[in-house]
Amino acid sequence: MRSIPVVPQERIYPEVLERAAALIQAPRILHFAGSKPWKSGLRSPYRQEYYDALRRSGFHTPMNFRRARLSETVQAMWFFITHRLSRVVSKQ
After folding, report:
1. Rounded Cα gap, residues 45 and 49, in angstroms
2. In the prediction, which pLDDT does 82 show?
3. Is the per-residue pLDDT at 47 higher than 70?
4. Is the pLDDT of residue 1 over 60?
């Protein structure tokens, strides 16, 4: 995963530092409502990071992980193909 750049604390607002400390003390799962950043197609810069984190989490068995990844890939390819076809058909 990419590293977060280090910023001197005097350049960060105190409210941000307080919020960061609170989040570290009580971590939460961030839920993206609507479009997911890792599902924005096969070229998403977050796609591989998402799958790496998912694999490390141990949430899926190895077989379920492969099934989930294949399903996501097929969905992305299907979206890409149907989107391209709709553009060709709309031009006619």
Report:
1. 8
2. 84
3. yes
4. no
Query: What pLDDT is stored for residue 46 in this prediction?
Result: 73
What pLDDT score was predicted for residue 4? Answer: 64
Q: DSSP character for 1? A: -
| C-alpha to C-alpha distance for 50 and 2, rounded to whole angstroms | 12
Q: What is the DSSP letter of 58?
A: T
Distance in angstroms (rounded) separating the CA atoms of residues 21 and 62: 35
Handedness of CA 41, 31, 50, 5 (dihedral sign): positive
3-state secondary structure of 85: helix
- 54 burial level (CB within 10 Å; 0-12, 13-18, 19+): middle
| CB of 9 closer than 8 Å to CB of 17 | yes
State the DSSP code for 42: T
The C-alpha angle 41, 29, 4, rounded to 5 degrees, equals 70
Q: With a threshold of 0.90, does the pTM exceed it?
A: no
